[in-house]
Amino acid sequence: NAGVTQTPKFQVLKTGQSMTLQCAQDMNHEYMSWYRQDPGMGLRLIHYSVGAGITDQGEVPNGYNVSRSTTEDFPLRLLSAAPSQTSVYFCASRHLGTHNEQFFGPGTRLTVL
Amino acid sequence: AQKITQTQPGMFVQEKEAVTLDCTYDTSDQSYGLFWYKQPSSGEMIFLIYQGSYDEQNATEGRYSLNFQKARKSANLVISASQLGDSAMYFCAMREGYTSGTYKYIFGTGTRLKVLA
Fold first, then answer.
1. Which of the two ends of chain B, N or C, has the fewest CB atoms closer than 10 A to its terminal CB?
2. Is pLDDT above 80 for A4?
3. DSSP for A13-81?
4. What are the beta bridge partners of residue A112?
């Protein structure tokens, strides 16, 4: 069981470039989500999905797109990177239910110059 | 309005002593859950403990216990017999607000704990 995997671990982009952060889980979790972590801000929810074909916006969705074509994968797309998107990004997954904890990936540290 | 408040940006504790990390929350839901996560310097998020709003007993997991005071809306994490490996950032999180087929999780800003030898 690999759990939640994320690639890449580190990425440097120039302003305006696009890229996709990959996230995959092998626990058959219905729910997957993306957070960004900034100093002094905790973790903020970007987008989430409750199953294949279903996505919704979180607290800070602007500048990011997601899709969920399979249960396992939940990629996060930055269409035109901005310096304000410099952050550490975490993908998380869990079973739907009242008190299931989330399992987090190792994170992707993104720097936008 | 911030729904999860961790007022201690940083704390020190002597090895083998107990330490309490504060967390207060705000919600109008009757059913909610509270979580604590640990983030060591390596960056991963590690689940520590969970408390449901209807649970009558305080949750415990090994050296971790959650001091849940519902009327005061606080969910403090107590770490007993601190170890050097406990040095990390600790996040309090709340599950609430059933919308769009699921619950949302909200995180506090974290408390950085340093255990001194």
1. N
2. yes
3. E-TT--EEEEEEESS--SEEEEEEEETTTEEEEEEEEEETTEEEE-SS-TTEEE--SSSSB--EEESS-
4. A13
- Which of B31, B44, B47 is opposite residue A101, by nearest beta carbon? B47
Q: Are B75 and B106 in contact (CB under 8 A)?
A: no
Is the confidence at residue A2, as pLDDT, over 90? no
Q: How many CB pairs under 8 A join A and B?
A: 54
A2 DSSP 8-state letter: -
- Asked whether residue B99 carries a pLDDT value surpassing 70, the answer given is no
Residue with tokens 């801000």: A41
Tell me the C-alpha to C-alpha distance, in Å, between residue B68 and each of B5, B27, B57.
15, 15, 8
Q: Quick one: which of A45, A44, A5 has its CA closest to A23?
A: A5
pLDDT in tens, A59-89: 899 999 999 999 999 999 999 999 999 999 9
- What residues of A are in contact with residue B4 (Cβ under 8 Å)? 42
Measured distance CA(B90)–CA(B51) in Å, rounded? 16
Measured between alpha carbons, how far is residue A35 from residues A14, A23, A91 in Å?
21, 12, 6
